[in-house]
Amino acid sequence: MNLQESGEMYLETILILSGKKNAVRSIDICEEMGFSKPSISRAMHLLKDGGYLDIDENGFITLTDLGREIAEKIYERHKVLTALFVGIGVDEETASEDACRIEHVISDTTFLAVKKHMKEHKIEM
């Protein structure tokens, strides 16, 4: 499975929810993302088939090592880009929304340069 932006968003959401809850189920993802149960169910099975997550017999969802690696990468990008945008005067909500769009397409090279710039200019990440 070639992971697209939507797949990355699901993995990131599972990562965030797993930090808030002991167990993550499809319904939690539905509520967090505002998508229908059938849409989430289909996506979870595609991600499971792709090796990004596991679903146990009780419907609890956990990230595999590969899924966690991708989710953490995307989530780091989200946090860093949000901080950068807030640091240059963008309101928190707009900064987060823009970071959410950019985090999926920014190159590793550019992202590393952003982090370096923020560190050099002491912008909190």
Written account of the structure:
- With 125 residues, the chain is mainly α.
- It has two domains: 5-69, Arc Repressor Mutant, subunit A, CATH 1.10.10; 73-120, Diphtheria Toxin Repressor, domain 2 (Orthogonal Bundle).
- The chain is built from six helices and two strands; from the N terminus they run H-H-H-E-E-H-H-H.
- It has helices at 5-20, 26-33, 37-49, 65-87, 92-102, 108-120; strands spanning 53-55, 61-63.
- A two-stranded antiparallel sheet has the order 1-2.
- The N and C termini lie far apart (32 Å).
Number of domains: 2
- The CATH homologous superfamily of the largest domain is called Winged helix-like DNA-binding domain superfamily/Winged helix DNA-binding domain
Order of helices and strands: HHHEEHHH
What is the level 1 CATH name of the largest domain? Mainly Alpha
Helix/strand structural class: mainly alpha
Give the number of helices.
Answer: 6
Rounded average pLDDT: 94
The percentage helix is: 55-70%
Do you know the CATH architecture of the largest domain?
Orthogonal Bundle
